[in-house]
Structures are given as C-alpha cells and as structure tokens.
Amino acid sequence: MSRLVMKFGGTSVADLERIRRVARLVAAEKAAGHDVAVVVSAMAGKTNELVAWTDGAGPAAQGLPPSDDEYDVVVASGEQVTAGLLAMTLRNMGLRARSWMGWQIPIVADDAHGKARIDDIPPEKLGAAMDSGEIAVIAGFQGVTRDGRIATLGRGGSDTSAVAIAAAVGGACDIYTDVDGVYTTDPRIESKARKLPKISYEEMLEMASLGAKVLQTRSVELAMAYGVPVRVLSSFVEPGEAPGQGTIVCDEEEIVEKRIVSGVAYSRDEAKISLFGLPDHPGVSSTIFGALADANVNVDMIVQSHARVADTANMEFTVGKRDAQRAVDIVQSLKAEVGFEDVRLNDDVAKVSVIGVGMRSHTGVAKAMFEALASKGVNIQVISTSEIKISVLIEAAYTELAVRALHAAYGLDQL
User: In whole angstroms, what is the distance from residue 29 CA to residue 237 CA?
Assistant: First the structure.
C-alpha cells in the first residue's frame, strides 16, 4: 500500500460538522487502499484565543528568562483538541484511529520556541502504526526539543509538520485548505484570478515567502529538498465530488509550458526600518544584521545608499510587523557602537511581488512591472529581486490596486 499524509487547516476543522466531513475524506482515502496519517491544525480562531491568553498573562519578571517555552505549551494545545476529536469521530465511523502528539512520534525540533525548526522525525513508531492499518491523527504545529520541552513551529507550522512526516514515512502529501488550489493571486482581491493546475517548488516557495497564505514557506522548502509530491486542494467537498481537483506542487521539469509570470503575491505583514547617517566602512552591516540574526529577527529587503554627508550611508530594510519594535530596540542598542544618526520605523507598508520561472529566459519583466505601477500612481520605496521574482515595497493603501494592475499587466487573467 502507498502511504499518504493528509493535512487539514483550521477552517477545515472549525467545528464538529467540518470535522465529520474531514473524517469522510480520510475514510475515502483509506478505502482507496492508502495507509493514512492525518495532520490537523487547531480549530479556526483557537490559536488566536490562546495567544491572547498568553499576552494577558504577561511577560516574565526582570531577571527571569522569557516565557517562550510556556507560550508554546499553551498555544500547542489547540491542535491536541482537534487530533482527539478527529480520532474519536473516525472511531465512531468504525475505523481504527488514534491521536499522536508531537512528542509521541517524536517530532524532534530545536529550542527556538515559537518558530522552532524540525531536526528529525524517526519514522519507526508512526510507520508501524500506519502499516498496521491504523489511521494516525497527528497534532500539527508542534514538536519536542531534545530536553523534552514542547516547541511550536510558527504560524502555518502544521503544513511543515505534514510535509516533514510525509518525507519521513516516504509518502505523498495532500494539503487540504479553504481554497481549491493555488491561484495566480488572491481571488478576494482579483476576481479574475485563475487556478494553476501545476506550480514548481521554486515558484511556490517564492509565493509562500512573499505573502501567499496557501502554504508555509518551510513546508515548501522541505518538499523541494526531499522530493515530496504535494497537492493543495479544498476540504469543503465530499469524497468523489471533485476528481482531479487542486494544484500539484512539483519539480519544474514536470511542467511542460513554463509561464513567464505565474503569480502575484502580497504581504501586509511588513515594517520598514530606516537608518540614517551610518558610517560607510566595512563591518557596520555585519554588526547590525548579526545582532538581529542572534535575536532570531528575520530581515528581508535591504537597500543601502550614499548619504549627502561624505563617508556616510543610509540603509533601509524590512522585517515582519511582529518583530518590528524589537528590531528597532536592538538597532538602538547599537547606536553607541555603530555611530549612526537616527532610526525610524514605518509599518504602513506592503510588499507586492511577481513570481515566475519563465523570468530566467525572458527580458522586460521588470519594465512591465514598473510601467504598470506607474500608470496607477503607485510609488515604489524599495526593490528586491531574485532569479524568479521581483518584489517592491509600497504604501499599504495601494496594495489591492497594485495587485490588480500587475495581474492584468502579465495577462494572468487569460490563463
């Protein structure tokens, strides 16, 4: 029998009726001859509620270490509830099932609480359970550190759990969500968005990292690294209602006709930090970004330019909004050492990106992007590029206008 890992997000398990639908989808795959493991998220809204409780409890007193480990204990409990409920529902249908917590498998993770990375998943226990015909229902989003503490994998971490488990047991991975595949852009912003039948790992990785909410970035990294076949599809159907549905995330070589641009992504979770009057000599950037890295602050777009005063420079970079104030505090703590003049924070910005493997072999993609934005009066603050994407930072108020303009500029509504 082939092994299949099915993952269901929060909206897919939002209440008992939706959990029953999930159970029917799982039962259909079991009946089709698969050895099945199911990874579940917390019920919709539950993680936000748990996070709010941790915020209400407040930080640790001065002199004590941060309570990040206890934060993980609290927020990981949502997935535990869902796993137990789904296992109970499957048993009510006459199927053999049991729930698994991250520490029982175990999903071994590092100790970066709140955004831990998976180090190892020994497949023996889980593989034996699947081979015996039992459906394994796994609490996503959580692992266990080597010293036995619960660690969560960051928002969207259940996707990463599912792909990592599929890699460990040698199976395929179906990601069930509230959309029926990967679209050229967010259909809530552009009604002409089109579903893509296939998308390359690289394109999906860029789209995920640039704001598309379909898959978590690290889940795509794992799928690409281990060659895990991934399919994104809707959980809001009954078994057999939509054969061949969804979007397949695969190797670029499996896509016959490569599009110049496959999608437009956006992220409002951006904050821009501007540094003025930096000494323009070696080691300054290393000091600043080294300190941010040591604090686990992820930096994205970086631009440096000469200032009007000789031997000084200005620098702008972006971080996630959640890390913005902490990043400013870290930079401020370096002021005496580095010697810059001022630091400013602007969180009223958004990042809009175009992605496509066809960019490698076609010219004029940047020109079309800048012309489309200029025609709508959208000013560009920062530009960042890679081999298959171009990102721009703009004022947040223009996000939807920019997305629609770029979607039309590359003919994505014609796919």
Answer: 14
**Cα angle 152-154-157, degrees, rounded to a multiple of 5:** 85
* In contact, 107 and 125? CB cutoff 8 Å: no
Classify burial at 12, counting beta carbons within 10 Å of its beta carbon; exposed 0-12, middle 13-18, buried 19 or more: buried
Q: What is the pTM of this model?
A: 0.81
Return d(Cα 202, Cα 331) in angstroms, integer. Answer: 33
pLDDT in tens, the chain (415 residues): 699 999 999 999 999 999 999 999 999 999 999 999 999 999 999 999 999 999 999 989 999 988 999 999 999 999 999 999 999 999 999 999 999 999 999 999 998 888 889 999 999 999 999 999 999 999 999 999 999 999 999 888 899 999 999 999 999 999 998 888 899 999 889 999 999 999 999 999 888 877 667 788 889 999 999 999 999 998 888 887 766 688 999 988 888 777 889 999 999 999 999 999 999 889 899 999 999 999 989 998 999 888 888 888 999 999 999 899 999 999 999 999 998 999 999 999 999 999 998 888 888 899 999 999 999 999 999 999 988 999 999 999 999 999 999 999 999 988 7
Q: Find where tokens 């999903």 sit.
A: 107
